[in-house]
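Fig. S4 source data, part A: sequence.
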Amino acid sequence: MTDDAKPETPMQRALRLKQAAIDAKPQPPRGGKFQREQSTGVQAGKSKPWMKK
């Protein structure tokens, strides 16, 4: 180990582990119909014909 390389602090280690856990989670799909629905606030499965008169 050289003099300029400092050991990782507990806070840095916690942040690194947290970032790794966030990156490991599945992300929602991007682009296409899904993104348009999300941007307009339309919920998936919004069409409920039994709710209409």
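Fig. S4 source data, part B ends here. The helical segments are 10-24, 32-40.
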